[in-house]
C-alpha cells in the first residue's frame, strides 16, 4: 500500500499547526453568544459536523495541495472554537449553581479522548499509515455528532425521553436561575473592561500556553530528545490526559462541597486556579534540570498536565459565577487569546529549536513555561472574583418550586 509522504520544512509544519488556531480564533465569541440565544444543541452540533467532515477530508487535501490542507485545518479550528464556549449556556439550564464545577469537570472528558487517541494513532500510523488517523478520528467525531443530535436537548422541558418527575427535579434545583435570553444591548464595554473577566482570560491563556506546548510539541521532544519510538511515544503522550480528567472530577467534587460548606466562591476559584498553574510550573522547573532523563520526563509530563485538571473548579467554571446570562459570551471572549497562544507556541518552539533539537534549547522552553504559570496565577489571585457582576442582567427570579413544571 502506497502511503504518500511530504517534505514540508519546519516553517510549513508549524503553519499547518497554526492554521488550526487561526480558525479557532474566529468562532469562540460567536459560538458562545449564539448558544445563549439559539441553544447549545444546534450550534455545537453544526460546529462538530464541520470539524468532522474537515478531518475526514484532510488526507485528500494533503494529496491535492498544501493550501487545501491549511484550509481543512482552518475549518477544524472554526468548528472546535465553538466547543467550549457553548457549554456554559447549557449548564445554566440543566445544573444547579452549586454543582457547576462538577458539571464543567465532565467536559474535560475530552482528555480521555486525547488519552485514547494518542496511542491508537501511534498504532494506526505504524500499521495502516497516517491517513487512517484522520479517517478513524473523523469517523468517530461524525458518529458522535449524530448521537449528539439524537440524545441532547437544550432544556429539560424540550427533552422527550425524561419523565415529568425528572423534569420537576431539575426545575427545583435551578429554580433561582432565570433563562431569559438577552438578544441585544450586551454591555460589551463593561465586559471587556471587567477585571474578573481579564483574570479568567489571562489564567486560561497561561494554562493553555503550557497545554499547547505539551500537546503539540511533546511528541517531538520524546522522539528527538528521549528517543522513544512512535508506539511508545503515543502511549506515553496519552498518560497525562488520564490524570487530568481524574483530577478535574475529584477536585470539582471537592470544590462544590466546599462551597456548600460555606467557603466563598471567590476563595474556591482562586485556590484551585493556583493549584492548576503552580503545579505545572514546579514540574517544568524540575524538567529544566533533569529533562534528559526518560523516567523524570514522563513523571513531569504526567504531573504537569494532570495538575491542569485543577482548572476545572478554578477559572474554567468562573464565567458561570460572574455572569450566568452572558457565561457563553464571556467564555468565548476568554478563548480568543488561546488561539493566539496556540499559534505563538508553535512559532516559539520553532524559533528556539531552529531545526536543531537538543536538550539545551528545550531548557529555555521549560523555563518559559515556569514563568508563564507563576505570572498567570498571581494576576488571577489579585483580580479574580466569584461574585455576580453588576452588569449581569438583574432579571426577575423564577420560583419554580411553587409551580409544577407541567402546569407552566
TrEMBL record:
<feature type="transmembrane region" description="Helical">
    <location>
        <begin position="42"/>
        <end position="58"/>
    </location>
</feature>
<feature type="transmembrane region" description="Helical">
    <location>
        <begin position="296"/>
        <end position="316"/>
    </location>
</feature>
<dbReference type="Pfam" id="PF07690">
    <property type="entry name" value="MFS_1"/>
</dbReference>
<dbReference type="InterPro" id="IPR036259">
    <property type="entry name" value="MFS_trans_sf"/>
</dbReference>
<keyword id="KW-1133">Transmembrane helix</keyword>
<feature type="transmembrane region" description="Helical">
    <location>
        <begin position="235"/>
        <end position="255"/>
    </location>
</feature>
<dbReference type="InterPro" id="IPR020846">
    <property type="entry name" value="MFS_dom"/>
</dbReference>
<feature type="transmembrane region" description="Helical">
    <location>
        <begin position="132"/>
        <end position="153"/>
    </location>
</feature>
<feature type="transmembrane region" description="Helical">
    <location>
        <begin position="364"/>
        <end position="384"/>
    </location>
</feature>
<feature type="transmembrane region" description="Helical">
    <location>
        <begin position="103"/>
        <end position="126"/>
    </location>
</feature>
<feature type="transmembrane region" description="Helical">
    <location>
        <begin position="267"/>
        <end position="290"/>
    </location>
</feature>
<feature type="domain" description="Major facilitator superfamily (MFS) profile">
    <location>
        <begin position="1"/>
        <end position="388"/>
    </location>
</feature>
<keyword id="KW-0472">Membrane</keyword>
<dbReference type="InterPro" id="IPR011701">
    <property type="entry name" value="MFS"/>
</dbReference>
<dbReference type="GO" id="GO:0015293">
    <property type="term" value="F:symporter activity"/>
</dbReference>
<feature type="transmembrane region" description="Helical">
    <location>
        <begin position="16"/>
        <end position="35"/>
    </location>
</feature>
<keyword id="KW-0769">Symport</keyword>
<dbReference type="InterPro" id="IPR050382">
    <property type="entry name" value="MFS_Na/Anion_cotransporter"/>
</dbReference>
<feature type="transmembrane region" description="Helical">
    <location>
        <begin position="197"/>
        <end position="215"/>
    </location>
</feature>
<keyword id="KW-0812">Transmembrane</keyword>
<keyword id="KW-0813">Transport</keyword>
<dbReference type="GO" id="GO:0016020">
    <property type="term" value="C:membrane"/>
</dbReference>
<dbReference type="GO" id="GO:0006820">
    <property type="term" value="P:monoatomic anion transport"/>
</dbReference>
<protein>
    <submittedName>
        <fullName>MFS 1 domain containing protein</fullName>
    </submittedName>
</protein>
<feature type="transmembrane region" description="Helical">
    <location>
        <begin position="325"/>
        <end position="344"/>
    </location>
</feature>
Amino acid at each position: 500500500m502506497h502511503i504518500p509522504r511530504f517534505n514540508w520544512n519546519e516553517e510549513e509544519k508549524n503553519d499547518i499547526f497554526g492554521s488550526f488556531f487561526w480558525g479557532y480564533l474566529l468562532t469562540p465569541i460567536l459560538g458562545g453568544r449564539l448558544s445563549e440565544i439559539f441553544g447549545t444543541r444546534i450550534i455545537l452540533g453544526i460546529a462538530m459536523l464541520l470539524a468532522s467532515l474537515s478531518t475526514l477530508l484532510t488526507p485528500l487535501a494533503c494529496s491535492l495541495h498544501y493550501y487545501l490542507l491549511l484550509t481543512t485545518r482552518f475549518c477544524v479550528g472554526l468548528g472546535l472554537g465553538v466547543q467550549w464556549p457553548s457549554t456554559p449556556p447549557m449548564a445554566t439550564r440543566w445544573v444547579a449553581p452549586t454543582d457547576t464545577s462538577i458539571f464543567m469537570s465532565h467536559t474535560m472528558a475530552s482528555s480521555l479522548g486525547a488519552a485514547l487517541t494518542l496511542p491508537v494513532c501511534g498504532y494506526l500510523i505504524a500499521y495502516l499509515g497516517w491517513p487512517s488517523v484522520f479517517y478513524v478520528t473523523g469517523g468517530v467525531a461524525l458518529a458522535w455528532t449524530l448521537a449528539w443530535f439524537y440524545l441532547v436537548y437544550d432544556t429539560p422541558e424540550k427533552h422527550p425521553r425524561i419523565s415529568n418527575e425528572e423534569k420537576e427535579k431539575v426545575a427545583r434545583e435551578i429554580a433561582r436561575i432565570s433563562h431569559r435570553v438577552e438578544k441585544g444591548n450586551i454591555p460589551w464595554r463593561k465586559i471587556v473592561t471587567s477585571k474578573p473577566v481579564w483574570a479568567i482570560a489571562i489564567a486560561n491563556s497561561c494554562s493553555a500556553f503550557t497545554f499547547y506546548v505539551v500537546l503539540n510539541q511533546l511528541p517531538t521532544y520524546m522522539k528527538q530528545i528521549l528517543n522513544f519510538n512512535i508506539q511508545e511515544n503515543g502511549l506515553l503522550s496519552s498518560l497525562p490526559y488520564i490524570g487530568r480528567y481524574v483530577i478535574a472530577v475529584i477536585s470539582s467534587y471537592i470544590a462544590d462541597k466546599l462551597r456548600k460548606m460555606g467557603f466563598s466562591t471567590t476563595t474556591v476559584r482562586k485556590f484551585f486556579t493556583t493549584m492548576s498553574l503552580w503545579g505545572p510550573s514546579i514540574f517544568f522547573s524540575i524538567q529544566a534540570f533533569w529533562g534528559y532523563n526518560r523516567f523524570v520526563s514522563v513523571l513531569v509530563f504526567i504531573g504537569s498536565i494532570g495538575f491542569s485538571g485543577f482548572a476545572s473548579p478554578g477559572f474554567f467554571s468562573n464565567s458561570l459565577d460572574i455572569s450566568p446570562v452572558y457565561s457563553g459570551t464571556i467564555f468565548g471572549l476568554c478563548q480568543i487569546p488561546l488561539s493566539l497562544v496556540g499559534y505563538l507556541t508553535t512559532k516559539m518552539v520553532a524559533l528556539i529549536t531552529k531545526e536543531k533539537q537538543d536538550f539545551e534549547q528545550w531548557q529555555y522552553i521549560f523555563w518559559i513555561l515556569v514563568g508563564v504559570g507563576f505570572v498567570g496565577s498571581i494576576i488571577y489571585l489579585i483580580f479574580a472574583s466569584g461574585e455576580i457582576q453588576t452588569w449581569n442582567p438583574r432579571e426577575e427570579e423564577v420560583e419554580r418550586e411553587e409551580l409544577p413544571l407541567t402546569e407552566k
